[in-house]
Amino acid sequence: MICSLCNFPITDNKIDDQGRKYHICSKCELIQLDGKLYLSMEDEKKRYELHENSADNKGYLTYLNNIITNSITPFLNPGNRILDFGCGPEKTWAEILKEKGFRVSTFDPFFDNNEWMSKNYNAITAIEVFEHMLSPAKDLESLSNGLRTGNYLIIRTMLHDNNWDTFKKWWYKEDPTHVSFYSSVTINYICKTWNFELKQIKDLCEIVLKKL
Ligand SMILES: [Zn+2]
User: Fold this and answer.
1) Residues within 5 Å of ion ligand 1 by Cβ?
2) Contact indicator for 155, 126 with CB cutoff of 8 Å
3) Residue-level pLDDT at 70
4) What CATH class does 12-211 carry?
5) CA dihedral of 134, 67, 96, 89, whole degrees rounded to 10
6) pLDDT above 90 for 117
7) Where in the chain are the domains?
8) Does this model's pTM top 0.90?
9) What are phi and psi of 181, to 5 degrees?
């Protein structure tokens, strides 16, 4: 098989302690769950509806406000247009951005499927989205095409350190909808391939890219 991000032939396949198979790309360091283990779209949607991502969840609000402080305020100004890509059923993140004065649009393949590409955005945010991507190259092509020079792609996903012994015990991969895992090498590959400048990797999870 070939890597679904960089098309490099994959020869490294490993099984974790739960018996799940992962494909590890030696070129871009993407680690992807074996396709046979993906949930059906129906089960995937059900799982997202269970996420505790509402404004009633104080821990979640703190988490989102930290992203504002670290990855939004340093790069964007109130009044800027932001697309929240993969907004989920609750749209809590979009609401917080609106409260901060941003003009916000939303897109989600399950909950808010619309023609987002036709508009111009200063930034696209993908909060807890990249780990769900079955075809990251396809999604990055769309995201890249939706941004112009100087615009930002702001990603929240936890990066792995390309160490299988750590990875196989990692809580982050236990969610059955988490299928794609990236390292800092993967992020650099994304920058080179889709013409982004890496502006920030904070705490190995908040990534800010600027379109060149
Ligand atoms: Zn790859």
Assistant:
1) 3, 5-6, 8, 25, 27-28, 30
2) yes
3) 97
4) alpha beta
5) 20
6) no
7) 12-211
8) yes
9) -130, 135
